[in-house]
Design goal:
Chain lengths: 530, 421
Amino acid sequence: MNTWMRHLLALLLGCLLSLSAHAALDAKVIRQLVDDDSDQKLAAIAALVQVGTPEAARVLQALSDDALYATDQRVWLKADDKVYDATTGAEINPAPDDVDTVSINNRVRGALDSALSGFKLTAADPAARLAAAQSLQGDVSASMIPALTAALKQETDSKVKPVLEQLLAQANLKNPDVKARLAAVEDLSHSNSPNARGLLLTRIDPANEPDAKVRAAAQSSIAAIDSRLAWISALGSVFSGLSLGSILLLAALGLAITYGVMGVINMAHGELLMVGAYSAYVVQGVFHAHFPGAQDWYLVAAVPVAFCAAAAVGMIMERTVIRWLYGRPLETLLATWGISLVLIQAARALFGAQNVEVSNPSWMSGGLEILPSLTLPWNRVVIIGFALSVLVLMWAIMQKTRLGLFVRAVTQNRAMAGCVGVPTRRIDTLAFGLGAGIAGLGGLALSQIANVGPDMGQGYIVDSFLVVVLGGVGQLAGAVWAALGLGIVTKLLEGWAGAVIAKIIVLAIIIVFIQRRPQGLFAVKGRVVD
Amino acid sequence: MNRRTALKLVTVCTLAAASGLSGGAFAADTIKVGILHSLSGTMAISESALEQTALMTIAEINAQGGVMGKQLEPVVVDPASNWPLFAEKARQLLSKDKVAVVFGCWTSVSRKSVLPVFRELNGLLFYPVQYEGEELEKNVFYTGAAPNQQAIPAVDYLLSKDGGEAKRFVLLGTDYVYPRTTNKILRAYLHTKGIQDADIMEEYTPFGYSDYQTIIAKIKDFSSQGKKTAVVSTINGDSNVPFYKELGNAGLKATDVPVVAFSVGEEELRGVDTKPLVGELAAWNYFMSVKNPENTKFTKMYRDWAKKQKLPNADTAVTNDPMEATYVGIHMWKQAVEKAHSTDVDKVIAAMGGQTFKAPSGFTLEMDPKNHHLHKPVMIGEVKANGQFNVVWKTKEPVKAQPWSPFIAGNDKKKDEPEAN
């Protein structure tokens, strides 16, 4: 057959297909889809899968999107802002105004997802095929073997292929042929999916699996998966520990300057975090009102705003109250505690007592799926990166700039620094402003994972002091180690003992540690020792 | 106006002014009504809406002529999610403000803190939230659900075909009396359904907790043991926002591991991106999406109220189950006062039994003549992409409450009505 003949044949086949696509669906099946009984709905979905036309797929997609509507007379659907009759596929103009959505429950939704994924296994876009294959994980039946084999034959993408192979193996687990089951069980030993593990577990039960060889193979496949999953879950714990650590670090970094370096027991530190978090809320509101198109990027714009707002509050605090109390820690403690109450009430007056809604931008939603059993949520990943960059920025300011040099000089020997011409008073204000601004950045990050409300600072003040004291007052590096250490220890304990007990154990460990080593992880240098 | 009436008027005015000055209890033409809900702190997310609902209902009753011709005067206090402060504020409402009735509390710990005060001063409390049962007080009317009106039917649904025929359960809650007791009841109930302890995982988090990564990883792990797993969440307050955010981001879908919540309604889901949460469940006695004339009126009234009061996010105002229970409670109290011709606590308590009210849930609710609980319908809803719930299952009739759960040992001997104190 020469080339043009082949082309012609393809064209003819295409015409035939598109003709059949416009054929009406069975009205009885469509009506069944609307039935209140889930069993009826499931039967109708299976029937539509059998039909297999794009028309049928569109009806199923509409059902899944809550875009299928029904009255006693007719069933119609919405797709691409147009309204079609579900049975004939013809466009309806004007759209019916009586809107009664056909609702589905989880059981129907699950079946529907599998059905739609089945349709998408042969989609043109490899990403869509991958997503479809992944969503079928752990949810395949023996009836899908022919479809999966066909899809696998066509598949050229190197990412989709192994997923399809795994799926086929999963489907083959229920194959009546013993050889096929044995092969499937052995194939699945390469899987990292908890779903595959779950399916294998059904094969070691003599009630489900008559063949002893298959049972033994399933046993060893499970052992293989388990040893890998153990690693993955350890990785997961380390990641959540790092992520909690980075949050603790962000909460404590500002305090590492105001308390650690300057020796001010700043009880209003939590409220400086709150200022940063509310800045995110305000910027979000401004974007919502004025730049709705760029809504996703409000968080980036909020970074300088949060820093400046918190720094401004900090500098005002320093100029008006703290400046008169240097070297009198108890009085600063009381005065800053008073300031914290003032700030809480101010937030209440400005924004109301209730929590406000700060949303994750879409690029921070969802997660990075490294393995089927390990998803790293984007917001956590971004916050770890953010914490690192704030840390680098702070280190650079303290070590590489004139301001940093002056702050260190004033900290070590105020009188001498004054003698050589360092404006000690102004340096105090700027240093306090820097610490406050960094607290603001911490608050901005916190707004992405926790609640934003007037009282939010109270929840972080204890953790922040723990980090700074544990790390060794006046030591940036100490704060970093303490934050990460606390994060990882807390997460490991939580995995083992639960959140409530973990908190108690962590506090007990800290008490014992501070008793043994009052100077913290690293030795003290700074104004406090003088 | 003749001279005598004019004189009377002047006397009444003077008296009213004098009583106002002395701060005393005597007010000629209003009935004081206390509202005891946290407007700040971790519970404000849930309770603020109840305060607004109470104020709205009082305004509605006042517009219709008040109770026995007298206007209701709301006295609002803020116990700030601080349990001991609840007791203090309750005492203030009863002994200083001399309110006729108090509508309030959300968490069981707050209710437990105010109980001694209501008992001692013989006050009257309407409690609008689902709770763990194990309580029957003469001074309290429970307009929320008891476990058999929410928790047990929800688990039944999860065990059913449509609910996914779950074989393993994660009982996840905030660490206090309601989740602990509810989970104790549920564990005993699951045992009767043949589910072993090995297939039940119980986890608690402190109030205000916001780091759910480890717990979600644990749930994923627990669910990978080859049996269909479901999560029962009794997480309370603003912890729910980080929990659902994390759940969505971690990619744990409702079709794999459904989560049924007892304390999450339309209000708590505001501010959460609900698209990844489609299909997650909640069990309540009312959902905003229920269609009937009473609910249309109720939801419209609340939306208008939110706009008029310029509440934050008034354009997205939603109603939920405890708000409905608050609304029903205030109306029933009004009916009882009118039946008793008095606001006297003992007379109102006597008149409350058997009161009925056509509620926004679409059912006519009845206050049980004996056990101080409402007969309520039970509904299971699934989260939709727009943050509303789609009712996937409901009872045909209102269910009578069992405050003493039969799944707790020794409860079979307890009497089904409050004893006089």
